Amino acid sequence: MYDKSIPFEAKIRWIKKETRDTATYAFKITSREIERAYRFIPGQFNMLYMPGIGEAAISISSAPSDHDLTHTIRVAGDVTTAISRLDTGDVLGIRGPFGNGWPLEEIEERDLMIIAGGVGIAPLRSVIRHILNDRTEPRHVKGVRGGKISSPARIILYGSKTPKDIIFRDEFPRYRDAFQTFLTVDKADPEEYWRGDIGLITGMWNKTSFNPLNTVVFMCGPEVMMQSMVKELILKGVPGEKIFISIERNMNCGMGICGHCFFGPKFVCKDGPVFRFTDIEGFLGIKEI
Amino acid sequence: MTITKIKKDHLRLIFDRLKDSYKLVGPRVENDVIVLTEMDFHDIPAGYKDLHGKGVYRLSGNKDSNTFSFSLGPDSFKRFLSPPVREIFAFKKSKKGISANVSSKEEKPTAFIGMRACDISALKLYDKVFLEGPVRDTGYDSLKRNSLIIAVNCLYPNGNCFCDSLGTGPEVRDGFDLAITEIQDSFLLETGSSKGSEILNGLTIEEVSDKEMDEKNSRTEDCKKTIKRHIKVNDLPWVIYRNPEHPRWTDVASRCLACGNCTQVCPTCFCNSSYDRLELSGISKKSREISGNKVRAWDSCFSKNFARVHGGNFRPSRRARYRHWMTHKLAYWIEQFGSPGCVGCGRCITWCPVGIDITEELEAIRK
Amino acid sequence: MKRPRIGVFKFTSCDGCQLSIMNLEEKFLDLLELFDIAYFRETTDRPLTGHFDISIVEGSISTAWQKNDIVDIRERSRYLITIGACATAGGLQALRNWGSITDYKNYIYPSPVIINVLSTSTPISEHVYVDYELWGCPINEKAFSETLISFLIGKKPGIPIYSLCMECKRMGLPCILVSKSEPCLGPVTRAGCGALCPYFQKPCYGCFGPKEDANIESLLKQFQNMGLTQKECILLLDKMNTYAYRKAKIERS
What we know:
The complex is a heterotrimer. By secondary structure, chain A is of the alpha/beta class.
C-alpha cells in the first residue's frame, strides 16, 4: 500500500472539454506500483494537488472498469483554475481515493434512479458507466422500460442551467441503451435548438415510470436542489432509507483528521461523501450546520 | 499493576534517570503561568497554587507544602504530539515531474511529566482521531509511540475542573507508564507498563502500607469532593440536537469573540489546516520550478474561512461557529468516537478572554 | 517569460512598509529575479512610465491631488495591492476623521492656512478598487513576499484573517489578558505579526487591524469589567487602525 497522506504523480493522457467551464481529464498514474494498488469504487474522490497552489477534492467520474481514470472538473477556485491551464502530458499530484462511494449492493434487483444537478453528474457518471460496462445488466430499447418485465428500471434525471451547460452531452445517447434519460434545463436560449424539458427536475415525474417502493435513488447536486428532491421523493413513496445523496464540504485532509468537512456529526470525507438520507435527515434542514 | 513508594527526596533520582534516554517535558513557571516546556526536576512548580476563574488565571508561589500542589496550565500535551506547525512533506515541481518527500528525523523520545487524568483521557481521544481513522497519521503515531507518560494524581482541582462529571478524572486509571500519587511523606508509584517499571529498576523502593493506601484513597476522595463544577451528561447528545435554534446560541454569539482560544487550549480539539508554504527562493521562473513545503498547522472551527468552499461558507455566523464547536464537543463526538470530546479540564473556561463557560451554556440550552 | 512589472507607490505614510520590503535583504535579490521593479522611489530613480502588472500602494488618501493620483495608478495597474495600516485603514492620521480639521490645524501649525489637506484620511479602497489588502504597521515582509508569490503563480494569498490569539497560542504563549488582565486587543486583531507584543508580555495594540467578524463590543465590555473606563477602551482602538476598528465596532452593534 502507499501512503495516502503523500501525493503521487499522475500524467494527463487526454483532456475533453465538456462545457465552457468544465472539462474531463484522464490521468495515468506514473508509478506502476501505485497504479496497481490503486482501487476505487464509484462515488469516491481524489485530492488533486497542484504544487504550490493547493489541493481540491474532486470526485472520480470514470468507472473502475474503465480504461482511464478520469476527473470532470469545473473551474471554481485556484486549484481548479490551475488545472484548467494544464495540457496533455502535464503532471499533477493525486492523493486518494477517499470516501465511501455509492452503495452498489443496494441497486441489485431494484430500480435505480440517478438524479444529478450541474457538475453533480460527475460522481454519478462513475455509476452510469459501471452499469453500462456491466454485461449482466439488461439492455433497454429507446428509453422505454422494455425488455424483460422483471428487469429493474434504470432512470437518469439530469438538470442543468442551460443546454450549453450539459456535461457529457455526447455520452447521453449511449446512456439510453440502459437508462431512461431525462434532461432538463433552467432556461434555454430560444435561438438554440432544444427539445428537452425546461424547468425543475421535479417537473419530470409524470414522464418516468418507476415503482417507488422498489427504487433506490443516487443523487448529487446543489444542496437546495437535493433537499427539495428528497421531499418530493418521499411524498412519492420512496423510502428514505433508499435515498443516497452525495454532499460537498470544505475538504482539507481527506482522511478525517482536519475537521473541515463536518456535516453534523459526519466527516464528509470518511463517512461520506455519500450518505443515506435517513442517517443525516435531522441535520439537513438546519441552517449553517 | 504494582504500587510501591519512594521517599520524597528520591523523586529527583527518577528525573536523573529519565534524562539519559528522554527529553523531559513538563510543567514549569514562565511569566507567572504554569506552562509545559522542556524542564528538569528543579523546575517543578512545587508549592505553587493556581487560581482559575472564568477568563481569569492567577498563580501564587510557596502556598503549599506539597510538590504537586498546582493544577493545569493553558498548554496540553497535544502541543508535543501534534505540533502547532508541522511539515508533512517537501515538494518539488520541475520539468521532470512532481516529487513529494517526507523527511524523517530521529528525535530523542519524550517523557511527559505530570500528566493529569484529564489529559490522559484527551490523548486517548486523540488516538481515536489520528490512529483509528482510515489513514493512520504517521507523525502522531511515531511521536506517541516514542513517548513515556509520567502521570500525577490531582490533589487540588482548580475552580474550573469538572472531570468527575465526565468520568475522566481526577484519578489516573490507565494510559500511563508511571503514575505518581503524593501523600504526606512519600510518593506512591504505580507502574502501568514495562517501560514504566524499567525506570524504577535499581531505585530504593519500599512496600506500601495499608495506612498509606488509605491515605491515597482519602486524598483522591477529598479531591473529588472539592470539585465544585459539574456538568450533566446523561441527556447528551440529544439535548443539544433538539435545540439547534435555541435563543441562547444568539446570546452566546454576542459575547463570543470567535478568537479560537478555547480550541487552542482544549486538549481534544484537533482541527488543522494544511497548506503549501513557498519562499521567493523556491520559485525559479526560468526553469519553471517550484519547490516548497506542505505544512499542517493548528486551526480552529472558529476561523471564518474554516468551512468555506468556493461559492459559499457553510458557517459564516459566529452563532453557528460557537454552536458547531460546542455541539461537536458534547454531541458529535459521542456519535463519532463513542464518548464526549470534552474531558472536563476547564481550560476553555479559564482561557476564554471573556469567560464563556461551556457548563453554563449547556445548562442554559437545557432550559 | 517576462518578469511582471511592479510599481511601489506612496501616499500619506511614514515609509515604514516600504522599508519592510527592503528589509527582505538577500531575499530582495530573489524578488528581483522574479519581478521587474519598474517604479520604487525609495530604492531607484526609474521614472514613472507605462503600465504595471502589480501596483503596491502605501499610505492613505489625505489630500485632494492624491485622490486623482490614485485613480491614475489604478488605471495603470492590472492588480493593486495596498500595504500597511495607512493604505488599508487610513492610518494614524485617520484620527482626524473623528475631530475637526480646522481645530487640529489651528492647534498645531503657526500659519494654518498653508496646510491644504482633506478633512479626512481614508483607505485606498474607498477611492479605487483594491485587489488585495495587506494589513500591519508595518507589514510583515514574509506576508509580503507570500502575496507576491501568490499573484505570480495564480492563487489567493494564504494570509490568515483569523485572530492573533491563534498565532499566539501556536507559539505557546499563555494569554496575558487572562493571566495578567492586560487589555490585549489580540482576540479582535488579525494574526500576522508573529505575536510580537504578547511575546514580550505586552498587550497587543492592534497594528494588524480588526480580524474578520471582530466582536469588539464584547471585548471592550470585558475590559470595563477589568476596570478600564469607557474612554480608555475607545483610546485602545484609536491607533493606526482607528478607522477600521471603529467601523467594525459600528457595523457589529
